[in-house]
Amino acid sequence: MKDLSAYKGIIPAFYACYDDNGSVSAERTKDFALYLCKKGVKGLYVCGSSGECIYQSVEERKLILESVMEAVGGKLTVIAHVACNNTWDSMELARHAQSLGVDAIAAIPPIYFHLPEEAIAKYWNDISSAAPETDFIIYNIPQLAGVSLTMSLYREMLKNPRVIGVKNSSMSTQDIQMFKAAGGDRVIIFNGPDEQFVAGRAIGAESGIGGTYGVMPELFIECDRLLSCGERERAMKLQFAINDIIYAMCDCGCNMYAAAKEILRLQGIDIGDARAPLTGITPEAAVKAARVKKMIDEAISEYTEA
């Protein structure tokens, strides 16, 4: 049985890092990767939803992954999301990711056209075939992709020996239980929705990949520690504090990732704004983001400082 310990822990979904003109910045990407590494995270999930991948070219995504690997390759577990809305580009990104030595690749299903399950399975298996020495993780996010990972599709994918788990971002924790039960010890299920990290871990997730981890890694690391130590009541209270922060981030009046980047700027790390058509930071949103930053500081003080 493959050792999956490299995937167990807090893995932030890495934000896209742009320069002041909106171009991908290799330097800011490396700085942000090192910043998260110093915070003590287990790994990074690169070029996923939080990384604004659908608004980037293949070459930009290659540059981002190259910069991350230059900064933290060998220090952190790196999962590269490689899906594009066509098989050709996705396979190219998969080959590139394997050449850099990532731990795993991941992919959402094809979006826009509603494809039959056999076509989705072929898409994923074709991508996996382009990186035959690399683990493969299914990314289930039906509320955005418009396609759900059904149990029949999942069982078909488990025939691929490189499939080692699911990044489950559906809002039903029952999916986590079902995917874990079907895959057993050969798979790891990553909790996706940050608002239900405790619930997801309780029902079978052994790890987490999240889009708000980047602005408050300390809180998710502590929540994971509390669960591992059996301190569920305190973990639940911390989850409530985390959720209040997430709701406030979503209420900033801009795209959540633009708010996250403004919070990071206030924390001392500038990675630019969100890329259009995502709504960027505004003066009003910046005021609200500053309040969220204060909430994070207070929660860190309450839950992680002795």
Task: Explain what the structure shows.
The model has no long low-confidence stretch (mean pLDDT about 95). The chain has two domains: about 210 residues, Aldolase class I (TIM Barrel, Alpha-Beta Barrel); about 80 residues, no CATH class. The longest helix has 22 residues. It is an alpha/beta fold. It is built from twelve helices and eight strands.
Quick rundown:
The protein has 306 residues and is an alpha/beta fold.
Structural class: alpha/beta
Tally of alpha and pi helices: 12
Kindly state the number of beta strands.
Answer: 8
Mean pLDDT: 97
* Rg, alpha carbons: 18 Å
Number of domains: 2
CATH class of the largest domain: Alpha Beta
Shape: globular
Strand order of the largest sheet: 1-8-7-6-5-4-3-2
CATH superfamily of the largest domain: Aldolase class I
Q: Give a short account of the largest sheet.
A: 8 strands, parallel
- Contiguous low-pLDDT stretches (5 residues minimum) are none
CATH fold-level label of the largest domain: TIM Barrel
Share of β-strand residues: 5-15%
Helicity level: 40-55%
Question: What order do the SSEs take from the amino end to the carboxyl end, as H and E?
Answer: EHEHEHEHEHHEHEHEHHHH
Question: Could you outline the blueprint of secondary structure elements for this entry?
Answer:
Blueprint: E1 10-12, H1 26-39, E2 43-46, H2 58-72, E3 77-81, H3 87-100, E4 104-107, H4 117-129, E5 135-140, H5 142-145, H6 151-157, E6 163-168, H7 173-183, E7 188-191, H8 197-203, E8 207-210, H9 217-228, H10 232-250, H11 256-266, H12 283-304
Parallel strand pairs: 1-8, 2-3, 3-4, 4-5, 5-6, 6-7, 7-8
